[in-house]
Amino acid sequence: MRIEVSTANSINGSEALTSQIKGLIQHELTNLEEHITRIEVHVSDANADKSGPDDMKCSLEARLKGQQPIVVTDTATTIEQATKGAAGKMKSSLERTLGRQSDRR
Q1: CA-CA distance, 68 to 58, in Å (whole number)?
Q2: Is the model's pLDDT at 48 over the cut of 80?
Q3: Domain with 61 in it: what CATH number?
Q4: What does the pLDDT look like over 13-41, one tens digit per residue?
Q5: Domains of the chain: total
Q6: Which domain holds residue 88?
């Protein structure tokens, strides 16, 4: 499973941040990685220089083998919280999708 991380201009996309995001996603989706070819992550700050609740946004797009991409988004106060929330939503969505496929067989 390849994880690609991009950030909005208002967020410092340092190597440390990228590594942290990849680690969070890898941890959450480790049991599903055999089905995933790629995860695209985009992190942005809705309010840019202003602070406010739930202004960090994390969008994940998962590419499954032979399937349409699945996209989820989560917002939170910090990048870490938004990433964890989006990864949890992605895990649920992928489990539902893969469960439906196995039910058809």
Answers
A1: 20
A2: no
A3: 3.30.160.100
A4: 899 999 999 999 999 999 998 999 999 99
A5: 1
A6: 2-104
